[in-house]
Every structure is written in C-alpha cells, then in structure tokens.
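Supplementary Methods S3. Complex input for the pyridoxal-5'-phosphate-bound model.
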Amino acid sequence: MISYGKQTIDQSDIEAVVQILKSDWLTQGPAVETFENDLNNYFGSKYACAVANGTAALHLTGLALGWQPGDIVITSPITFLATANCIVYAGATPDFVDIDPVSYTIDPNLVEEKIKSYQSKGQKVKAIIGVDYAGHPCDWKSLRTIADKYDLQLVNDNCHALGASYFGDKQYAVKYADVVIQSYHPVKHITTGEGGAILTNNAKIYEKVRRLRTHGMTKDSDVLRNNDGPWYYEMHEVGYNYRITDFQCALGTNQLRKLDAFIDKRRLIAQKYDDAFSKIGCSITPSVEDYSDHAYHLYPLQIDFDKLGLNKKEYFIDMKKINVNFQVHYIPIHIQPFYMKKYGFKLGDFSISETFYNREVSLPIYPLLNNEDADKICSLINDL
Ligand SMILES: Cc1ncc(COP(=O)(O)O)c(C=O)c1O
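Predicted complex, serialized as structure tokens:
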C-alpha cells in the first residue's frame, strides 16, 4: 500500500533505542533532557519540554496561557482536531477564521476583522493558534503585529513545519509565537513513535508546562510550603502524566540529526509533483509564498472533481483497490458534529476552507517513497 505518509527508521535509530533499553533509565532519565537540548539547538528556543504527544503539548499550552471559560481563542478550520480541541479542554470558546487561498494558512486580514467584530460587541479575543499547514509557515509577521496591537497570545501549531524556513530562518517559530508546539507522530518529519514538545522563550510558561507534565508536582524550594526531606514534593495545581520515555527521546535525538536530509527528500518529491501537475487543468499545486521554504509534511493537491465530473469518494475507493491510500487533510473543524452542535457553526461559515476540503487530495510524500511509486502517482493523477 502506498500511503500518504510514513516514518523513516534506519539501523542507527534502532541502535539508539536499544542502547537506552539496556541502560538504567527507561523514563525520566537523561535522554529526555538531551532531546530537549537538541530541540532548543535546532529550533532556536530557550526552553523545550518534551511530552507524550502533540495533543498533550497543546493541552498544556492552553493551561499555561491561562485559558478559561469566557476566553475566545481563534484558529484555522483546516487543521487536525487537536488544535481546536485544546481550546475546549481549557473550557474556553473556539472560533475560526478562514484560510488564505494561496498559503492555506489562517488569513491575518480576516483575523483582524474577527477581533474587531468581537471588540464591537465588547468582547476580547485571548489567543490565536496559527497552524503552519502542510509545512507552509503562516504569515507570522502579520500575526505578530496583530497579537501586539490587540494584546493577544500567539501560539504556533508547528506540527507540519519542522525544517521549514520563514524569511530564510529555520528558527522562526519561537521568534514570532509565544509558544510553539510540535508532534513527532510517525507521519511527521521526525518521529518518537508518539511524542511532542512545547518550545518557548518564556521561562514562566516553560516552568508551568514542566510541572503540569508530571501531575503538577514541584520540588522547587522557592514555592515549597514545607520541606520534610529529600523525598519531599508538593502539588499546588492539578497536572497530568504527559511524560515521554527515554527510549522515545533517544529515537528523537537520532531522528533530529537527519531532519534536513528528510526535508531534502520531501522537497525532491514535491518538485516532481509540481513538474507533473502544475500545467494540467482542473488541478492546483501548492504555492509557496516568497517568504517561505516549504517543509512538505503534506503535498495538498487541489483537484476540481466537479469540473471533471468525478465523484471524489468513488475515486478514493478505486485508488484503495489498487493499493494507493490517498488522504484528505482536513475536514474543516467547524463542520464536525461536535463543533456544530456545541458552538452553532454551520456549513457555509468558512467557504474557502470548505471548497479546499472538497478539492484537496494529500498525495504520498515521505523520504522512503521511491521513484517508481512517485511515478505511479504522477501517472494516476495525469490519467484523471
Ligand atoms: C496540525 C496538528 N496539530 C496537532 C496534532 C496532534 O499531534 P499528536 O498526534 O502527536 O497528538 C497533529 C497530529 O496529527 C497535527 O497534525
């Protein structure tokens, strides 16, 4: 089966994990800190807190930023459920802003319009979560300007964009956003199996997410009310077990070394698809804004199925029969039954995202995709 995404594991990854399995620490040992330091070095953050998965990273971010009932947090409808669910976890109210039709990331002009419309009703937006969808950075300069102008918190859901650059800078994410979250799920650029991290330059946010990662426990002498001995800890707020293991982090460290090479391979495949499809009718290849270098977690091709007189559902079923598992990223979140029922969103609310969803096909893209399979995808799409 040719899938849309897949991990790349080699002998050095296996050896890195085995070494930890033979060591004294399976979890809460030195490999976690090593991975966090490596993340800081690569992404230019002051602090990194590795956690169980990207969803946990989002959950802790909302808590560390103090989201609570009554707060409004805005994100894009074209993202994975977890980006919006973390707003719900905090008891805050999610709202959406449509995507820019070129970059497929949240449209800053519409963000500002939405903030103003809340203001006119006497309400304030608390935070924006930009999503670097597919590996294309958002217009972070504009989002930062808006965040400063209206005093909002800015979060980067950076899960798709590890290794991307913005104005030539691979360390852009923490420079613009107050908090950056990542996922290391196997389809992502690097993997730890399940895993994620929170990156920030803000010490207070870092300390809070670190405490919440382990049940809210602290041994910090500055905050302890008592100190009964070296075993002693206190809990001042409720936290979770969102820890990641040492063998996962050893894998993460080894994978991170190969991130640039992985991105190069993804870009070669994207170039092949661009060459194959940019001139055929009824399809739109992903554009790359001048300011960015795409990391191609996904290759979202838009196909106008209506114009072709084709049924997208039947097409996907036919492709599966010949072992090609295309995917769609994403069903716009505002039309998920939960969001419609609980918050009153309806079809038609974010029309650019909805049209995008109807047309989007995520083509297979991952470093181990061989030429033969990539050629097969090219001819299948050209046959359309
Ligand atoms: C944009 C986005 N945000 C958040 C997540 C959640 O990450 P995880 O699956 O590691 O919980 C994902 C993963 O699919 C994602 O693609």
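The radius of gyration is 21 Å. Residues 53-55, 79-80, 82-83, 131, 157, 159-160, 183, 185, 196 surround pyridoxal-5'-phosphate (CB under 6 Å).
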